[in-house]
Design goal:
This protein is of the alpha/beta class. 51% of the residues lie in helices and 17% in strands. The chain has 9 helices and 8 strands. The strands form 2 sheets. Strands 2-6-1-7-8 form a 5-stranded parallel β-sheet, with helices on both faces. Strands 3-4-5 form a 3-stranded antiparallel β-sheet, covered by helices on one side. Bound molecules: 2'-deoxycytidine-5'-monophosphate. The site of 2'-deoxycytidine-5'-monophosphate (DC) has 14 residues, from helix 2, helix 4 and helix 8.
Length: 227
């Protein structure tokens, strides 16, 4: 069973995807974390966020994911960078890096490979990102597109920063999210958009439990569920 959850930053994808996977005994694949690891690679190598920069740095980068129980860890060159990729610095550059064709080719191949492997081994995989239902797995069994009001998304993101020890003014977080949405939606390759066959969920007024139930109920209603 392949389940994709796409949507803009802060719409609730990752919390939902993680919990849905845990409830169903499936594996969670956070595709944004993989783009973040590549973005960290660009920052560390100090190369421009252009096709030339990508040609220089990509051959030297290795991004892997590994699982510790329910937790997905991201490795860059064998080093665990799961926490480093959540910094405001990475937030700032990741959207630029993810517009580059060479980066997307590398990531999509890896995501398909990992997704198929994990689904085979555990019966299912839940991916979240921007193009997981449109490009990575266009034949997914269930596609969800999550949206939420921008103020609510900024509030959630500000709280995540606060939990990581970063105090960032609300207006700044909101502006960053709006800028990232615009870039993710208007880029040439694999822009953020709802797949035609995706079900839309507006999480502005949803509890996490409601979001999770929404997806789990649809998985259980699928004709292949339990086969
Ligand atoms: O979900 P996130 O905020 O961790 O994603 C970080 C960035 O990575 C996002 O701004 C766009 C990019 N991304 C992408 O282009 N395609 C995906 N499938 C997932 C993320």
């Amino acid at each position: 069973m392949i389940i994709t959850i796409d949507g803009p930053a802060g719409s609730g994808k990752s919390t939902t995807a993680r919990r849905v996977a845990a409830q169903l005994g499936y594996v969670y694949l956070d595709t944004g974390a993989m783009y973040r690891a590549v973005a960290l690679g660009f920052l560390r190598a100090d190369v421009p966020r252009t096709a030339d920069g990508a040609a220089k740095v990509l051959p030297t980068l290795r991004v892997d994911v590994q699982y510790r129980g329910d937790t997905m860890q991201v490795l860059l060159g064998g080093q665990d960078v799961t926490h480093q990729i959540r910094s405001a610095e990475v937030d700032h550059v990741v959207s630029d890096v993810s517009t580059l064709a060479a980066v997307r080719e590398y990531m999509v191949d890896e995501q398909r490979r990992i997704g198929r492997e994990q689904a085979e081994e555990h019966g299912g995989v839940v991916l979240d990102g921007r193009d997981t239902g449109t490009v990575v797995f266009p034949d997914a069994d269930l596609k969800v597109f999550m949206v939420a009001d921008v103020d609510e998304r900024a509030r959630r993101r500000q709280q995540e920063y606060a939990e990581a020890g970063d105090t960032i003014p609300f207006e700044e977080v909101r502006a960053e999210i709006e800028q990232r949405d615009r870039q993710d939606r208007t880029r040439d390759i694999a822009p953020l958009r709802r797949a035609e066959d995706a079900v839309e969920l507006d999480t502005t007024d949803c509890t996490i439990a409601e979001q999770v139930d929404f997806v789990v109920d649809r998985v259980k209603a699928h004709p292949d569920w339990g086969t």
